[in-house]
Design brief:
Layout lengths: L2 H8 L21 H4 L8 H8 L5 H19 L5 E5 L12 E4 H24 L6 H21 L5 E3 H26 L8 H19 L2 H25 L4 H24 L3 H4 L7 E3 L9 H5 L1 E3 H19 L1 H11 L1 H6 L4 H27 L11 H11 L4 H24 L5 H19 L17
Parallel strand pairs: 1-3
Antiparallel strand pairs: 1-2, 4-5
Helix pairs in contact: 4-5, 4-6, 4-19, 5-6, 7-8, 7-13, 7-16, 7-17, 7-18, 8-9, 8-10, 8-16, 8-17, 9-10, 9-16, 13-14, 17-18, 17-19, 18-19
Length: 463
């Protein structure tokens, strides 16, 4: 049972109605025996196991990827050794390089992927889902097989593993904050399509405020407030006036893009020294620990926002699953009427959580102008908000899952840059598509179906 399902089972609205009250959706006069449908009251995944429903999407996706692996990693495997450098100059100790032969590793990968695909088929025929460990192994093997194939086909079949992973984490920072901001909204029952606008306006506010004040910390605070302002508009229209939440989110993205583009062209660009030259946030390296091979640059040599990312994931997870606020938030997102009967102010809690989600997303926006580059440019987020939304779905509305999904998309983006530098025979247009291809495959069901909070996108009116 997943952590979400376990907490839903422990929730107060899962208890039977007092006094034998008629369950919601039961016909008047119906007895308990007539409504005892197998799987009733369970989550979608649990109900599918009870009634023997078969999800054919996962083995289909795995089968297609196995065919791709056969063609690329097996039949087109490079006949040379591929070297992954683990240690760099200045590391605390030296770790031998990882050397894999293209042909041997390619055919090994194909064989294991085919075996996992067969396992998926057998599990579906038995009416069961593919275990998460099997899906994780499949994804890891496919990625390593792809790396060996494409790096082995480059002019220089050698790549720094530390640089690849550290760059992936850096590119994933705004995605993690964006997905956490969306998670706080959707767990409360509000669909947040405006993550792109929140990231973009956070980056804009950080650049302007940081430049005027001459302080990166002021810019960081301005990013939080600016993204929260976008969330305030979303909350007012979606919660107070009950406007379609998807439409409001799309409109906000377009509005922020147009507004920041106009101000960039008329204010920031003509006088960049005053309005568009924010100082950078400091990069803090933990002595000794930062020199550990691979893990050092990832965990102990980060910017302030990089450290805040790890802390934010831990805090959101703990608050969501271990506090009263988290229980109420999940109740409001799953069954707001039941939460209301228990004394929870549904719309007030949703309003506060939407503002909080915007503030969290603003930290991701500040990364662009206070860490990545010291200037704001038009539409510099380049669709990162939509990828963060996909990471939220891929991560099954869980903070840890959203983190892992964001890291995967960051890895795909960084791999595009590194492979272009190495000079692979793969067209650059395909490499530019790589992050979005990974996004589509992930959301399409590589890890099975994802179920959003039951009340997500549904305005609540107190009766």
């Amino acid at each position: 049972m997943s952590p979400q399902e376990q907490h839903r089972d422990d929730a107060p609205w899962a208890a039977p109605a007092a006094g034998g009250a008629r369950p919601e959706g039961t016909r008047p006069g119906a007895t308990a025996s007539t409504t005892a449908v197998p799987g009733a009251g369970l989550s979608t995944a649990a109900a599918n196991e009870v009634v023997g429903a078969r999800n054919r999407r996962t083995p289909l996706v795995l089968g297609l990827l196995s065919l791709v692996a056969l063609v690329l990693f097996g039949l087109s495997a490079p006949d040379n050794a591929v070297r992954f450098r683990v240690s760099e100059d200045g590391d605390l100790f030296r770790v031998p390089d990882l050397v894999l032969h293209g042909v041997a590793w390619g055919w090994t990968t194909v064989a294991v992927l085919a075996g996992l695909t067969v396992l998926a088929v057998l599990r579906v025929r038995a009416g069961r889902d593919l275990p998460r460990w099997a899906a994780a192994c499949f994804g890891l093997l496919f990625v390593t097989g792809f790396l060996v194939w494409i790096v082995g086909s480059a002019r220089s079949p050698e790549v720094s593993l530390s640089g690849l992973l550290a760059g992936s984490v850096a590119l994933a920072v705004p995605l993690v904050f964006g997905s956490l901001g969306g998670l706080l909204c959707e767990r409360s029952g509000v669909v947040n399509i405006a993550i792109e606008g929140q990231l973009l306006f956070g980056a804009f506010a950080a650049a302007v405020a940081g430049s005027l004040a001459g302080s990166a910390w002021v810019g960081l605070l301005a990013a939080v407030l600016g993204a929260a302002l976008v969330s305030l508009v979303l909350a007012v229209f979606a919660i107070t006036y009950r406007v379609n939440q998807v439409i409001v989110g799309v409109v906000l993205n377009v509005l922020v893009s147009g507004l920041t583009g106009f101000l960039f062209a008329t204010v920031l660009e003509p006088d960049a020294a005053v309005f568009n030259a924010p100082p950078r946030l400091p990069r803090v390296a933990v002595p000794v620990l930062a020199e550990i091979p691979v893990l050092g640059p990832i965990l102990f040599d980060q910017s302030v926002i990089g450290y805040l990312m790890w802390a934010a994931v831990a805090v959101v997870w703990f608050a969501l699953y271990r506090t009263r606020w988290g229980l109420r938030t999940r109740a409001v997102g799953e069954h707001p009427k039941a939460a209301d009967t228990l004394g929870v102010r549904v719309n007030a809690l949703r309003f506060r959580n939407v503002l909080l989600g915007g503030a969290v997303a603003g930290l991701g926006g500040a990364f662009y102008t206070l860490v990545s580059v010291s200037a704001f440019t038009r539409d510099m987020t380049s669709g990162a908000g939509y990828i963060a939304l996909a990471a939220l779905i891929f991560g099954r509305w869980n903070p840890v899952g959203a983190l892992l999904a964001s890291l995967l998309f960051g890895f795909a983006s960084n791999l595009q840059s590194i492979l272009s530098f190495l000079g692979t025979p793969v067209p650059s247009q395909f490499l530019a598509m790589l992050p979005y291809v990974v996004t589509i495959l992930a959301v399409a069901g590589l890890v099975g179906a994802s179920r959003a909070p039951a009340a997500s996108g549904r305005p609540y009116t107190k009766e």
